[in-house]
Structures are given as structure tokens and as C-alpha cells.
Amino acid sequence: MFHVKLPQTSDEIEESLVVFWHVEEGDKVEEGDTLVEVQTEKAVFEIEAEEAGTIHQIIVKRGDSAKVGDVLVTIDTGADSETVKPTIPEDRAESAVALDDRSFVRISPRLRKLAKDLNVNLTDVIGTGPGGALTEEDIQQASAGSIEMGTKTEEMAGIRKTIATRMMKSLQESAQLTITAWADVTAIGTKRKERMSSISWNSIISHAAIRALEQHQALNAHIKDGRVTYYEQIHLGMAVDTDEGLYVPVLRDADQLTLNELDEALKNISRNLSEKNLSSVELTGSTFTITNLGGYGVQFFTPIINPPEVCILGIGKIEPYIILENGEIIQKERVPLSLTFDHRIIDGAPAARYLQTLADLCQVF
To answer: Is 321:333 a contact under the CB 8 Å cutoff?
Structure first.
């Protein structure tokens, strides 16, 4: 009997959530076949069979979590082995039993994606196709039915569940405070129109944020188990919204990049995420994170720190404003900046000085 265990996917991750089984008990598998998809706080990974045989017992059910080294499934390879029994914590016993009763629904990847996009639970849909198979119409009708009822209840799972856990942990284990400031970007706007219109505003302000961070290295740090680690290199985390939820891809040594190089790297990261090419995106090791909600019309907001970091910068919508200068009314442009910092490590004055430096760099960029 071969035991498939949860591997160590990164130094920081000790627990993963089982989001989808590609096999059922009794299925024949070959070496290299995909068995299960598991999700950490950072990404989704596929675990493959290392031995050929028959699926004997699925230990960790869909929707349950496992720790590194836990047995996920056993494969009967012809050798005798004792059956491994799953250990279910008491506080999860009820939900685990409910998940155990769910049946595996065999369906094409296209229809499975459709059901996922429409938030349809396949186990609740009655198939009208040959032999009771689910059809596209069945899924569409199930989706329409849930909308007509006016209410819809769904279990928090997958990346949404990991994001929720991570954000709650961040708020509970740190003293977070947000300060805000306007930064005049009139000069940058003029220069951008004249010489670098292809470079995004996000890249321009992110580049300025990196330059400012070089002058305030106390903000480029991690705190873990009561110990603070300060970094000379700036590994930039960039929060990116996707159909599946929020990811924070990491651009290592961002301080070594020119503005053009930074812009190209950030565009490549966004492209890979939109194409779900996660293997090409690094998702761990950031030392400072930026999140941009300007595209949604948001001004100031309160970003939540991405642990174990001690700061996160929020960028809002660039907007025109009017001032009186030398007796003349002049229109300029400004961007709202929101800096959340861990007050256990950083006081208000150093955080304010960072924002001041960033605002100054935006004017002389």
C-alpha cells in the first residue's frame, strides 16, 4: 500500500486545503496521474501519483485541510498495508461528515468550469442527459433557479477561505494603523504623456514607492514569532484580483529594476495570472506589498497587511484638482495614498515620513 502524503510546498506553508479530488476510491491510476488539487494561502497545487495502482482510501475529503506529512490517500499497489484512518478535530467533525456524503461528479472540464463560474454545486443538480448525465442546460437552469429564489447559500472554501483565514490572522496578531496623504502627480502626468504613455500609472507610482522605501528601510521588514527581520533587498508583492480571488505575486529584487523593466515585469505577472499560469508566478517571499484600487474609483481605503510584512501601501484613483497659485486658478492631478503599518514595529512619525518622501518623489520623478 502506497501512502500519498501532503508535501512541503514552501517553507512558510504548513497546512493546505483539499479543493478537488480527480479520482474516486476504486479508480485505477498510473504513475504521474493527477490525484488531487490542494490550496495553500498562496496558490493551488496538483499532487500526482508516484505509484500505479488502485485508489484504496481517500483519507482527507474535499473541503478538509491537512498538515504537511498527513496521508491524503492510499494506493493499493499489491503490497499489504494497514488502512490509515483520518483524524478529524471535534470542532470540524460535523462539517467533515457532511462533506463525506458528497459524491464525485464526473463531468467535462468545460461544464465543470461553467458550474464554477455560475456558483452551481454539481452534487445538487439532477442530470437530464443520457444515463442521467449533466448537461449545460441542467447547469444553466440550476443557476437560474438559485437566482429566482432570491437567496443563495454557499460554503466558504478554496481561495476565499484561505484569504479569510489569512486576513483575520493578520488583524488579530498585529496592531494595524492606516494613515493617508495626497501626492501631486502633475509633473509625472505631463512627462508620461510626452515620453512614456505606454507605462502604466501603477508601475510609475510603484517605482516611486520602491525608491522611497530605499530611504526608509525600517518599513521593508518581516515580523515573526516576536523577531523582526529587516531586508536590504526589496521583494515587491503586488495584490492582483482574479476570478478566483486575490493573489499577491512577488517581484524579487524590484529595487534593481528600471521603470521600464518594472512595468514589463508587472505586466507579465498580470498576464500569467489571467491565463492561470501559476507555475510562472512566484507567490512567496515579498517584503512590502502594494495594492491598487484606483481602477475601481476608490480614493482612500484601509488595506490589510500581508503577513509577515509590517507595511502595505494602497493606491487610489488619480484625479484632477484645482488650486490657487500666484493669483491664478490652476488644474493639477493628485493620487490618494493609504499606508497601513504595524504599530508594534513602526511608529506614526516614521510611517508619515515615508509617505512624505513618496509624495516628494512623485513631484520630481
So the answer is: yes
Q: Quote the pLDDT of residue 299.
A: 95
Architecture category of domain 173-363 in CATH: 2-Layer Sandwich (3.30)
- The full set of domain ranges for the chain reads 2-104, 108-156, 173-363
> If residue 291 lies in a helix (H) or strand (E), which one and from where to where?
strand 288-292
For residues 290 and 212, give the distance between their C-alpha atoms in angstroms, rounded to a whole number.
13
- The residue annotated as part of the active site, out of 22, 184, 343, 360, is 343
Grid cell of 240 as nine digits: 492582483
Query: Is the CATH number 3.30.1330.10 carried by domain 2-104?
Result: no
Q: What pLDDT digit, counting tens, does each position of 154-180 carry?
A: 666 666 777 788 888 889 889 999 999
**Active-site residue, selected from the candidate residues 117, 124, 253, 347:** 347
343 is catalytic: yes
- 347 counts as catalytic: yes
CB-based contact 71:4 (threshold 8 Å): yes
User: Is pTM, for the whole model, over 0.90?
Assistant: no
Radius of gyration of the chain (CA): 25
Instruction: Judge contact between 51 and 33, C-beta under 8 A.
Output: no
How far, CA to CA in Å, does 132 sit from each of 80, 135, 175, 239? 37, 9, 55, 43
